[in-house]
Amino acid sequence: QVQLVESGGGLVQPGGSLRLSCAASGSIFSINAMGWYRQAPGKQRELVAHIITGGRTNYADSVKGRFTISRDNAKNTVYLQMNSLRPEDTAVYYCNADILTTTLRKYNDWGQGTQVTVSS
Question: What pairing do the DSSP bridges indicate for beta strands 57-59 and 114-118?
Fold first, then answer.
């Protein structure tokens, strides 16, 4: 079994910053890719940022230049540094990982999500 646990969400004023963390644990052999998604009220879940083996990243256009995704492979942890936050960034943020399990099978998992609210 694999677990993903997010942390770091909260309430912040426009222009502020938050740093989200997601730690993976369980029957993990390796993690190929990790990403952050978000879902705002009335909208479907969307990709925010994604990082794969080798360090290649991509970002939603709406967060480019403001958010940075990074990964600590030794700790099986992915981070999302969010700067210059805007009210439209308000959403539940979910961690996702593509995992090779200890039995060498591909596995995709989601965390429970962490709420980010940007409001003055």
Answer: unpaired
27-59: pLDDT as tens digits? 999 999 999 999 999 999 999 999 998 899 999
- Cα dist. 66→23, 76, 107, 109, 114 in Å? 22, 24, 30, 26, 19
Give the model confidence (pLDDT) of 48-94 as tens digits: 999 998 899 999 999 999 999 999 988 999 999 999 999 999 999 99
Q: What is the DSSP letter of 53?
A: T
65-100 residues labelled b (16+ CB within 10 A) or e (exposed): eebebebeeeebbbbbebeebeeebbbbbbbbbbbe
Nearest to 52 by CA among 68, 26, 32: 32
